[in-house]
Amino acid sequence: MSLDIFLMQLFGGISLFTILVLMALGLAIVFGLMGVINMAHGELMALGAYVTYLVAWVFEHYLPGLMGIYLFFAIAAAFIVTFAFGWVLERVFIRFLYKRPLDTLLATWGLSLVLQQTYRSAFGAQEVSVPMTAWLSGAWEPVPGIQLPLNRLFIVALTILVSVMLYYMLFKTRWGLRIRAVTQNRQMSGAAGINTDRVDATTFAVGSGLAGIAGSVFTMVGSTNPLTGQIYIVDSFIVVVFGGVQSLLGTFLSGFVIAQTQTTLEFILSGSMARVTILLFVIVVLYFRPNGLFAAKVR
Amino acid sequence: MSIRGIAKHAEVLGYVGLAVVLLAVLPAVLDEFRLNLVSKYLCFALVGVGIVLVWGYAGILSLGQGIFFGLGGYLMAMFLKLEASAPELPDFMVWSSTEVLPWWWEPYHSLTVTLVSIVVLPSLLAFVLAYAVFRRRIGGVYFAIVTLALALTLTVLLVGQQGYTGGANGITDFKTLLGWNIISDAGLVNLYFLQVVLLFVVMAAARFMVRSRLGKILIAVRDSEDRVRFSGYDTAMFKAFAFTIGAFFASLGGAMYSIQVGLITPTLVGAVASIEMVIYVAVGGRLSIVGAVIGALLVGWAKSLISENFPAVWLFFIGALFIIITMFLPSGLAGLLAGILNNGAEASGDNARAASNTAAGARAETPR
After folding, report:
1. Does ipTM exceed 0.90?
2. How many other C-beta atoms lie within 10 A of the C-beta of residue A157?
3. Do B159 and B265 touch, CB atoms closer than 8 A?
């Protein structure tokens, strides 16, 4: 493979990588903190995508002059809506199931089915897509012959920004300190005066919000339909488990490895065989490293 | 019979009632088409009995029972398809320009090989997978995710290899089983009775297992695996065994499904179908064998009813069912019934005691 094809190929995996990473980061902090498997995480991503679609529609019809920057409002709106939804979800539903992780899995799966049908009733079964922002539709040509699409560059930058912000919040703020304390020892944290209920709710909401951003990013590389979330949910879990549940860096790297391997294999094998190979590979790796590739040595 | 009597014999009554309904009432009131639908639900009931063992007793949540259901179904379908299209190639192979029968299809000209495969292959796969995973002490949600990923993998594989598996349309259009017509009304009714008999055999086997010492060890493993391991048991082996039996039952269900419904598709293998199989059991009660069968019948019937009349409502219905059952009724209808009967029995017991106390001239205060 010559260098320029290799680079373009690498870039082809980027859109999958950004979505998987944003999804998986959200899942990872929720799972790491509460041990909750949220099967409706994919539908939260779809929610973010639909919010983006709605914001784009409003701008198109009422503020056509500002179409160039609708994306920033859409991303913010997607985050805020999914954040709020996640908060409510945690308070009225998830928190009653903490002691029963397997049941949580089934209950959130039920929730995902309800949400899918809600999207289908509200937006129809067809795919919806947003107009491409003008200043993102070109390509950057660092050297002749290598064209890097601007929208891909944008989502990579966004993903890195979000990941860095998440890292900062978790490791450099009081909020993050509380989350890490509760993750390590819930009872002691409670005894030390941390409101663990509130930490749970915020964390779940932030995890949901990340899915919302993933949805927003998704609209830039694909069209949304009610089943969009379901397509990504298992892959996102694979990324989390492969990377090691307690490690954000692991999640980030495993998202990169899986997305790149997948797109490279698709180039060589057929699409379905690529997926099969990846899934089997991950299962074999998990057999030898049950805690994931980058598991922190805990306890 | 008093409430106490009912509570005492609830399980036996459940079996008898189910037998009466399946063998006498349903065949009498339903036409052939509806009866065939009941056969279809009962195929999932077979899977459900396995899930009771695996999930209810051994505490392993598998989201991949569709894998074994699908393997059984596809193995049976290969035989039926070869018989239906003999001496030519199966039609989907011709369409995908596969020119010679793949070598691994060859043995399935024989019914014996097919039946042995249906029993052996899924069980073997389940055992190897489960023993390997459980030995590494991977369990709980990780195992659920691994099985889910495997179900997804198999679906992708089946859809992708169209020339060998029929792709997304699956394998369909069967005619006979060893020359015996399986698509006529009479054939379907006979198959229904065969299905019911098979179901009761499987239920009896499952009941025997959970009431034996094996069942007790499984419960112990579920509730405190470490203690059982420290007592010297190979817990991985016990869990793998339960999982293998569950896979075997699922494979039987799949094989019966292929025969009676006349098709098998990748959809039945996938993540969505696999998780749906769990809700059948959750509705009936994860610890109750009769409950699982009744759950499969009820949810299957509701699915037919809703999909025929209000297709848009189905996902709302099944989604809400998942939420309500797990949040409010974790032991399902069987648990609900047991609760009611126990309360009733307690109340009538209290009354009886109170009566005898009064009769003896003692104070009518019943200790609580």
Report:
1. no
2. 11
3. no
